[in-house]
Design brief:
The structure is a homodimer of 223-residue chains. Chain A is built from nine helices and two strands, in the order H-H-E-E-H-H-H-H-H-H-H. The first copy, chain A, has helices at residues 3-10, 14-23, 41-56, 61-72, 81-92, 102-114, 123-137, 144-163, 169-210; strands at residues 30-33, 36-38. Chain A is elongated, with a radius of gyration of 23 Å. Chain A has 223 residues and is mainly α. Chain A starts with a helix and ends in a 13-residue tail after the last helix. At the A-B interface, helix 3, helix 5, helix 7, helix 8 and helix 9 of A face helix 3, helix 5, helix 7, helix 8 and helix 9 of B. Chain A binds a DNA duplex (30 and 30 nucleotides) through helix 2. Chains A, B: It comes from Knoellia flava.
DNA sequence: TGACTTTGGATAGTAGACCTCTCCAAACTG
DNA sequence: CAGTTTGGAGAGGTCTACTATCCAAAGTCA
């Protein structure tokens, strides 16, 4: 197919596709002549993937380029699949600076007492430390005990993640990287919906319990 | 304190603080004279919150402004606490366009059969539809059954969320909005760490079975 | 008192990200 | 063989989040 067809197929403008070609986000088509090139399904898939990572995953184009590099690279040692994937994801996350402070030590201590076996140098420890610290500043009451409760549920999610990774190492890198990046938004949306469902349940219970009419009923979100 | 002190206290440059003042992200200090203003702890908190929402939460300044507007607005009907919070969060999420297609219908059907009680017009249904669709295009094998498994774990998270919301309605809006936005990154980081922990468990089990030796430097990414 | 520095406020400028426009000559179309 | 379309390349545009400059009044110190 021509560039214009690729455009209508993916809903991305020709100008933008040209830009992606220039930036190396999209591999060149098979040149039929100096002013004619042929694109195929791999190009359609690639464009859709770039858009998904950008719009749904919220990644920058520079990050997407790095992600694409890793998941299309052929020579991946089957021993280091997860390592490579994690390193890609670490770079994908907007790592700003290194904190190395008390918050990182707290996270390490918490991980240990929670019983998780994790490399103490793992870059996501920094991410967690920063995020946890932000919650502290906002006085959200996120303490070790609540973190434990979150972690137990998240571990269940991670088990689903890991159990669905294919055996083939090349497919595995792709699956882990994309599965992590693209499922994150799914989980975020699910959380919002679940909050609504759960608080509705409480509201219903409160209404049944107190028998309040429409007016002045307080039981909304409160526990 | 002076603007310069606010700057050293928060680690944000004076120029940037002036910018925040102009944009309305930071309330003005108490003017002592035409060239002197007094700032206090509320300003320090506010600046830290803005930075947290920006750097940790990844929100744009325009979105942060809307969030601040809601969580500082005094007159919140205690009936609509969650509604207000959800609407704020809906605007906070980068809603691009309306899909209204088959993917939205699938999500609605899935929610119903999963047994969640949710407003069919909920904006996060669109978000979930988009995210799920992106996973489909990437061939990640995210089917209804796996979604059920994710949802069960996420429901546990939402129960923790809801159970920690304070009774006071004004505090509740703040808590729900910030708790949702700032805890998201915590959960994301936890998921990465949990994946590592879980797959280490499997790898350990496999290694005990096969007894592999590792040498041969990891073929790629180093910088 | 008077030189000097600091302050808040306003305006303009900058850097990066992500496109979008314009031009071009070759190639395809009727 | 006139007219349109194509791929390619570079410049230009828009948005976001700052950053730098300027100014006059206010504070500071000898």
């Amino acid at each position: 197919m021509r560039l214009a067809e690729l455009s209508t197929e993916t809903g991305v403008s020709v100008a933008t596709l040209k830009y992606y070609l220039r930036e190396g986000l999209l591999h060149a088509g098979r040149a039929m002549s100096r002013t004619q090139a042929e694109y195929d399904e791999t190009h359609v898939d690639r464009v859709r993937l770039v858009r998904a990572l950008s719009e749904v995953g919220g990644l920058s184009l520079a990050t997407i380029e790095q992600v694409l590099e890793v998941i299309t690279e052929p020579g991946t040692d089957r021993l280091h699949v997860l390592e490579v994937a994690q390193r890609t994801l670490a770079r994908a996350s907007r790592t700003v600076g290194s904190d190395e402070g008390a918050s990182v030590r707290r996270v390490r201590a918490w991980i240990e007492q929670h019983g998780w076996e994790i490399d103490p140098q793992d870059p996501f420890i920094d991410d967690l430390a920063r995020a946890w610290e932000a919650c502290d500043h906002a006085a959200l009451g996120l303490d070790e005990e609540r973190m434990d409760r979150y972690a137990d549920h998240v571990e269940g999610i991670a088990e689903v993640d890991v159990s669905t990774v294919p055996a083939d190492p090349e497919a595995a890198v792709r699956h882990v990287v994309l599965g992590t990046l693209l499922v994150d938004p799914v989980l975020v949306a699910l959380r919002r919906l679940a909050q609504q469902h759960v608080s509705r349940g409480l509201q219903g219970a409160a209404a049944r319990g107190t028998g309040t009419a429409t007016d002045d009923a307080d039981g909304m979100v409160s526990s």
